[in-house]
Design goal:
With 298 residues, this protein is an alpha+beta fold. The chain contains eight helices and four strands; from the N terminus they run αααβαββααβαα. Strand 2 and strand 3 form a beta hairpin.
Amino acid sequence: MSIKLKINLLLLLIGLITSLAIGTFNYFEAKDRIITDAYKKAELISSFAMASRNYTVEVMRPLALKVAGQGSFHPELMGGFYVAKAIADNFSESQAGYTFKQATLDPVNPENLADVQEREIIELFSADRTNKIQKGVMEKDRKNFIYIAQPVVAKNGCLTCHGNQEKAFIGRVKRYPGPAGYNYAENDVVATFIAYVPIQKALENLKAAALKTTLASILSILLILGVVWLFLEITVTKPIVKLTNLADNMSRGKNLDKAIKSKSKDEIGALYDSYNRMRISVIKLFEIIKKKKKIAVH
């Protein structure tokens, strides 16, 4: 294996390792930024939805009852989650993929039925009542989401609609005649408010960008290696090959009268100068040998 090939292989190895290391570092750093930003968005959506629910329960519901009467039921004005979900759905129309859900085990609306993963979150909140927030990455329909979940705890005011069905608002019973959504007990964790922020597309775009960057780096390395290869060919390989041939001829006593010159001021130039001095020494040595032979003959 030639020196030139060894040098280029070493440079190729160093370049590939460096490119992969930098690419990997940049990928995971960018991924962390995507996830961090997604958490911030999920927290914002969740906080806004909870604030909407609390305002509905504390302000709009008492006002609606005062105006419409104690037996009336208008979820658009009185239902904390109904209002929060409506606002979140409106928001998601301009922000595709963002969803907000009150996942519960016994919902009035089938859309609110907790799936397996959401049931696990509700169970975590029930098991640890000090746990006020749960967050992480969740996969749904082969897509990744960042989620922020908060427990929904049944308060005394909730029992008016969700306690004993026979004591619930008549308007509520008429609107939702089924058995679901009743028999809550005060301070029980009955559901979770959970906000989902999609990160699948961002991660796919990041992977595509990382792949393009890595390929561009490899192409740049190959281009640099091509330049290095050409440089070594002109400045190192050719002069050394030429000098090797001259040295071989010198060992055979050929072309000793041909001086060689090099414009290089580096080690190659010094090597050429050494060859010229050696060539002159060999010529002188041959002349001495010839003189001794002549004397010996006479």
